[in-house]
Design a protein that fits this description.
heterodimer, A: about 180 residues, alpha+beta, Beta Polymerase, domain 2, two-stranded antiparallel sheet, about 15% strand, B: mainly alpha
């Protein structure tokens, strides 16, 4: 399996849009979208847990080329907290209940779209959960401070841009 | 006092380094950032199965601790 590529992210974006899947890039992959200059091996998606979205997600994954048994499709539709997929054209991790984020809607409202890739932001996390819940972090405070100056993002409804970097992203997957 | 100043200098230097790195990253197109940011190496155990699902994040973290080598970096700190 090769490294996750930009064109694969585009495929996710386009196919998920076509299937109307509600999701956000999260973890270090989300942080990279926001400008975090580091490396990762994993692409994480925070997916809204609902029957409709679960069905749409399964359809989108199959469209992308993931081979899912009926049992696996059922688990994804029901939204197990964490699903690792290595049975498709690229590796993908699905997170239905990331630490520190209580509701998908909150994260969605505060997302930042970078070239139409939706990414979670730090302000998604409840204050009590910032900066981390146990995973290694990579100087998130400094990252947070400076990403404010990255002006390529459109910003979200709250007026936040790549600025509000991501404890969520960093804490979930600083590896 | 010296220690505090030293720590402050160190922190400032680190901040400057981060600023430079972010500014450099910001100058690159997203496509290029992807190319440099996503890497792949074989991960023992983790890559052995095509599919895994965990009922809770706690289950996942426990599984990582119990099954993955520490050097992969998936453990709790």
């Amino acid at each position: 399996m090769a490294a996750f590529e930009y064109r694969q992210a585009e495929e996710i974006r386009d196919v998920f849009r076509a299937h109307q899947v509600r999701y956000l890039f999260i973890g270090k992959s989300g942080a990279i979208l926001l400008g975090f200059p580091d490396t990762t091996q994993d692409a994480y998606l925070f997916v809204q847990r609902s029957p409709e979205n679960g069905k749409a997600l399964v359809g989108a994954l199959r469209h992308l080329g993931f081979t899912l048994t009926d049992q696996q499709a059922g688990e994804i539709t029901r939204g197990k907290d964490f699903v690792q997929l290595k049975n498709g054209p690229f590796d993908l991790d699905l997170v239905f209940a990331p630490d520190g984020i209580e509701r998908f809607e909150d994260a969605w409202r505060r997302r930042v779209d970078v070239e139409d890739f939706p990414s979670a932001t730090s302000t998604t996390l409840s204050p009590a959960r910032r900066p981390a819940t146990g995973r290694r972090t990579v100087s998130p405070c400094l990252a947070c401070v400076h990403s404010a100056s990255i002006g390529s993002n459109r910003g979200n409804e709250a007026g936040e841009t790549g600025a509000d970097f991501q404890f969520a992203n960093l804490e979930f997957c600083a590896r | 006092m010296w220690r505090m100043e030293s720590a402050h200098d160190e922190s400032s230097a680190l901040a400057s380094q981060w600023l430079e790195e972010f500014e450099a990253a910001a100058r690159r197109p997203l496509k290029t950032r992807f190319r440099y940011s996503f890497i792949h190496t074989f991960k023992p155990v983790l890559d052995d199965q095509p599919y895994r699902a965990f009922d809770t994040m706690e289950d996942y973290r426990r599984w990582c601790e119990a099954n993955l080598p520490d050097w992969l970096g998936y453990g709790r700190v």
